[in-house]
Amino acid sequence: AQSVSQHNHHVILSEAASLELGCNYSYGGTVNLFWYVQYPGQHLQLLLKYFSGDPLVKGIKGFEAEFIKSKFSFNLRKPSVQWSDTAEYFCAVNALSSGTYKYIFGTGTRLKVLA
Amino acid sequence: GAVVSQHPSRVICKSGTSVKIECRSLDFQATTMFWYRQFPKQSLMLMATSNEGSKATYEQGVEKDKFLINHASLTLSTLTVTSAHPEDSSFYICSARFRGPYNEQFFGPGTRLTVL
Predict the structure, then answer these.
(1) Which residues in B1-116 belong to E strands, given as ranges?
(2) How far A70 CA lies from chain B's nearest CA (Å)?
(3) Searching chain A, which residue's CA lies closest to the CA of residue B98?
(4) Would the CB atoms of A43 and B107 count as touching at under 8 Å?
(5) How far is B25 from B75, CA to CA, in rounded Å?
(6) How far out from the chain centre does Cα B5 lie?
(7) pLDDT tens for residues B15-72?
């Protein structure tokens, strides 16, 4: 079965530190990949997405992600985090399952940025 | 574009009552809508997929009779939690997609259900 792994469950960083959150998926077919952010008590917001083309994707708020097909990975990066980046981050894969495309979400990474 | 709304945003109900949550695509026709559930500090779990005019397809372990889904039009899907109990308290999120090359889903803001 398809799955998405986010190995870092909790990450604590100081402001201005660099961030990299891992995301690996298991699916052999064509995938669309997404990173979402959920601020405390708020709804899901799309950070960035990959469908095809340049494997380095730039999103909102200074985030970027790199699709490495050979590693089945789509890691999220930000060169310098801010206190306001404190949130939960979800990686998702859109894959064909039982005849329809469905999103499979990772378990999420809770990021805390210390001021 | 591609805005999805949910109503209500929060609902508190007594145990044993039924609660209906609406999901609307505001500026596009949604051929498929999805319902997710998110427990506190956990990820989103897909509950069911619904196509306009047909019965919903439920994920394994989701009770069809408890979570009634109706996708009556291309812009509206409803989730009814029947005979709600405290363990049904959760954040329910819908998403919608239109017919396109990437099958991208657009998410609603969610509905927080608290069953007393």
Answers:
(1) 4-7, 10-13, 19-25, 32-38, 44-51, 57-58, 67-73, 76-81, 90-97, 106-107, 111-115
(2) 21
(3) A101
(4) yes
(5) 5
(6) 11
(7) 999 999 999 999 999 989 999 999 888 899 999 999 888 889 999 999 999 999 998 8
